[in-house]
């Protein structure tokens, strides 16, 4: 089994407590190389953005009015980068830990992409040096600084993605792009003399970022499709998530153990008792078994007794083993036992088996 095989850590105790748990600082580990931003304009957007304090929500009432579109560039890169991070963390988590239940997967994904984690990654990639703090804000808390650092990291991912699917005259469309012929045909029908750069504009790249692509000259890199760009980021982030997830899961296991030991009554792990499928038919046959046994007054010396014992184990529903004992008029003792989830059914089944042993009824009755 590999390091990240199907083994599942026990982190199902209290979802809320483990999700809200604040991880300690990550230990030192090797970082995969930071993907470069091939678009100088996108690079300038990140370098020139000024992080400010949190604003009251009343300032954002007119959210669909883009009266200052230049200031939306950074937020767009950040939102796209955040979405790509979430998608990658979710899919990578399910691919790497297929045995995880939904709760464990959600906890891992939450800790991988939360601000307190991303700000540490940003610092290790030296991206925190790109943060420009608003001089009008007099006090910056640790939370504010971490938020600004994580925002730069998310924006960097968004910028890498957009630079990968961008277009300039020095770039050529990848030959294996499925929609190349279609888009070329559409562009030809529209205007055969139109510059080839208009073909890639049908990729639906956000207009604000497309308009800036005329300035790009990123080392003659080939343009990637959106799927190829995501695979590129997925490959990089998977190498980043691997050591991070190992540390996260180790810390969550420690926190779960601490949480369990602090309970007044530590939780017991319960199991579901395996019920054989033939029990249902047997119980149907044994219906009325106690009545048949107790009605044999001429054959039975004393009233039959039933000894019930709870089966050992931490079961979600307690199963019972019942031993029925009957003594006939000749003093011979007849016994039979049965195990059932319900004690009454176990007694009935044990009585029915006793009747079969004594020859009072046949096994098929």
UniProtKB/TrEMBL annotation:
SUPFAM superfamilies: dsRNA-binding domain-like, RNase III domain-like. Residues 70-165 form the RNase III domain. GO terms for molecular function: ribonuclease III activity. InterPro entries: RNase_III_dom, RNase_III_sf. One of its GO terms (biological process) is RNA processing. PROSITE patterns: RNASE_3_2. This is RNase III domain-containing protein.
């Amino acid at each position: 089994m590999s390091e990240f095989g199907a083994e599942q850590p026990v982190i199902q105790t209290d979802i809320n407590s483990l999700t809200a748990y604040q991880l300690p600082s990550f230990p030192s580990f090797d970082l995969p190389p930071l993907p470069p931003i091939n678009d100088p304009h996108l690079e300038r957007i990140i370098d020139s953005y000024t992080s400010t304090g949190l604003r009251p929500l009343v300032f954002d009432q007119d959210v669909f009015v883009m009266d200052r579109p230049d200031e939306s560039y950074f937020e767009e890169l950040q939102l796209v980068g955040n979405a790509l991070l979430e998608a990658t963390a979710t899919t990578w988590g399910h691919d790497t830990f297929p045995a995880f239940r939904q709760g464990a997967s959600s906890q891992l994904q939450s800790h991988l992409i939360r601000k307190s984690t991303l700000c540490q990654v940003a610092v290790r990639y030296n991206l925190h040096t790109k943060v420009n703090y608003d001089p009008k804000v007099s006090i910056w808390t640790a939370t504010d600084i971490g938020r600004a650092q994580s925002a730069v990291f998310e924006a960097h991912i968004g910028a890498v993605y957009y630079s990968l699917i961008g277009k300039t005259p020095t770039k050529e469309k990848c030959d294996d792009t499925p929609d190349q012929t279609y888009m070329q045909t559409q562009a030809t029908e529209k205007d055969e003399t139109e510059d080839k750069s208009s073909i890639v504009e049908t990729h639906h790249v956000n207009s604000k970022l497309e308009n800036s692509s005329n300035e790009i000259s990123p080392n003659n890199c080939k343009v990637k499709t959106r799927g190829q760009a995501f695979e590129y980021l997925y490959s990089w982030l998977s190498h980043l998530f691997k050591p991070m997830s190992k540390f996260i899961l180790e810390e969550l296991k420690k926190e779960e153990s601490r949480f369990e030991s602090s309970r007044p009554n530590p939780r017991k792990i319960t199991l579901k008792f395996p019920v054989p499928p033939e029990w249902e038919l047997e119980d149907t046959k044994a219906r009325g078994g106690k009545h048949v046994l107790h009605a044999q007054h001429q054959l039975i010396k004393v009233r039959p007794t039933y000894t019930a014992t709870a089966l050992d184990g931490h079961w979600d529903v307690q199963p019972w083993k019942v031993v029925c004992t009957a003594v006939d008029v000749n003093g011979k003792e007849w016994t039979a036992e049965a195990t059932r989830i319900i004690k009454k059914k176990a007694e009935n089944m044990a009585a029915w088996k006793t009747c079969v042993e004594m020859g009072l009824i046949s096994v098929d009755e």
